Structure formats: C-alpha cells, structure tokens
Amino acid sequence: MKSVLFSRFFILLPWMLIVIIMLDVDTRRPAPPLTPRPYFSPYAGGRGGARLPLRRGGPGRGREQLNESRPPPPPLPPEPPLPTIYAITPTYSRPVQKAELTRLANTFRQVAQLHWILVEDAAARSELVSRFLARAGLPSTHLHVPTPRRYKRPGLPRATEQRNAGLAWLRQRHGHQRAQPGVLFFADDDNTYSLELFQEMRTTRKVSVWPVGLVGGRRYERPLVENGKVVGWYTGWRADRPFAIDMAGFAVSLQVILSNPKAVFKRRGSQPGMQESDFLKQITTVEELEPKASNCTKVLVWHTRTEKVNLANEPKYHLDTVTIEV
Question: For site-directed labelling of 133, which of 23, 46, 166, 177 has its Cα 20 to 30 A away?
C-alpha cells in the first residue's frame, strides 16, 4: 500500500513544481498601467445617434471653458446722486436757543446729504451760534439778517427776512451753474422731526405735503387726499386759506426755487398765518401737490415748542464766579 502511494506522489511531484514556478514568475511581473475608459452619457448624442464620450473632469470644467468663451457682462450704470436736502432754519437769541438747536442738530446728523442753512435774526453772527455750528459737524451755512423793528409787533408774521435770506443764498449758489438734485425744507428750530420725514421729502418732484402734529389747536392738521390728489384741508383755523398748511408741512424742489426767482415770503399785504399760502401760490397749485406720508395719514413732524423757561430766581447781582454758556 505504501509503495502505491509513493509511486503516485513521485508521479505528481514534477507537475506541482511546475505550477509553483509559474506562480512565482507571474507575481514578479510589473502590472500594466490602468487606462481610463471613456464614459458615455445616455443623454449626449452625436451624428446618427452615436454616443459621445464625456470627460470625467466633472461639470465644473465644462462651465469654466464656457465662461471663458463668453464676453464679460457690461458694467452697471452709475446710481443717480442722492438729492441734497437744504434745511432753512430761522433762529433768534433766547434762553432755550442752544437747547433747541442741539436737538435739531442731533436729528440732522442722522440724515444723509443734508445742508443746514441757519439764519440768525441779528445784525451780526453771534458767538454762541458760531461756536455751536463749528462743533456740530454738519455741512452748514451761517447767515444773519435782522428783522426791522416795525415788524416785531405781536400778531405780525415772523422770520420772513430770515427765510428770504436762505432763499437768496440758494439762488446765488446755484444760479450760475447746473443745479444738482435738491429739496428745500423750512425747518424751524422749535419742532420735532422723525427721520422718516426726510426719506419722504427727498423724492419731491415739485412741491410735496404731509400732516403736522400739535398745531392749530388740534392734535394734527393734514391735507385731505382722494385718489392720490389733495382735495381739501383738515384744519382748525381758517380752512378757506388757499394752502391751509403749516410751515413744517411742505417741501419744494430746488429746481422749482431756481425757476421762480421772484418767489419769496412777502411782508406787504401778508396776514398772520398766511405766509405759507402767499409763498406756495407763487410756485404751484393745489392740484399739483404731491401727498407724502402714506397719503397724508402719518404724522412725522410735531410743533412741540419748548416750554417757556422760568428764570424768576436768576440772580441779578451775586452772579456765579464763572461764565457758563447755556
């Protein structure tokens, strides 16, 4: 039995050696490099419906080559300049003057592209207002013109000469050059203004209007609007006025001011409370007015006025040892 097994082993031994040698040689042979196979998309067809191979670089490479072949987009047109708001503020010497101007300046600092025209009712510029404007950090113009004594009686219109001085400065500055877009607003120093009001008035094309709070013996006065047009006035005093509106209730385009060089606030023949109507009649009509503030349904300016100061205890002889500007 053993002899039979040994005889079969020796018969198979050469074949086993041959298999081992072949396997050893095959493992030592270098592997051939792998070649990428083209990828055929089922959605890309050539002529006759033949499939076209797509590169495996991903969709980004195709977009980059496509963008390189396209011309660059044209540059965007420059934005139109922001219209300048010119705020004319008449002011006069009184105990609360600096307090009023401080509140107004704090509002104006938050309004872009605003130029403050401050006009003193005085024969010369006061040191108080000059120092105040120098520290205010606002684009400003400091003017002065006194009100004639005969017009300082109670019941007569006030600040006429000061508003006209501001109008004259605007016309002189822009009269000999092409005026940039602008809006004129009469900003008395005893009012309170919402920042939203300046956004509303900046788009004025000719003359825009809006409500005013705490005026005329009422909580507010306003233009009455129907279908986007002013048709009347909600007011507590003389509703028969052509423009029954407060000085703080309208703005005028700078171009309108320059196109009407004779439009000013009148002294002769003007009655108290009629200054607004006398001025607006020279430049527009009620039908042309532009309602702002949600068709004149929002109050964005208030005729607050500072309370009259009580100085009964102010000393006349034993004064403080230092001088303090108030």
Answer: 177
